[in-house]
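Please supply some protein, with fold tokens.
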Amino acid sequence: MIKKTFNIEVGRSSWLSVYLLSIHSLLLLMLFSLLSGYELISAMLLLIVSFSHYYRQYCSLKNHYILTQTSDNKPYWNIQDADNVVQKQQQLKRSVVTSRLVILYFEGASRWRGKSIIIAADAVDAERFRQLRVYLRMPKTFQP
């Protein structure tokens, strides 16, 4: 029997959007001061592609997840995205935990199919965010 033990809904983060925009803007200013001509144009195109990729991946409307931890022999997670596609039995491999940000790395079916989810403090309920941070800092979380 699979029992639901933890559930968190991750929405959009305005803090993460501002962070991505400011970092890419600073890089753009550096490019203007360092390069000229075709080098500047190609570097600007790469920067625009980078911003659009990371914004779409982490800040767009499709970056809406519902994470549910289930309890079996090992703790597994189900990840439901904005399109209601559910990825079941994802194993949490590692995480990065700070006071404003949590990054979760899940193991996929193959080495190249892993998934990372960035959760900013302003994208979730404050109490659930605190509970997630406490859980991820427990020593037995990542032991097999």
Notes: The two ends are 20 Å apart (CA to CA). Residues 14-34 form the longest helix (21 residues). The longest strand covers residues 86-97. Residues 14-58 form one domain.
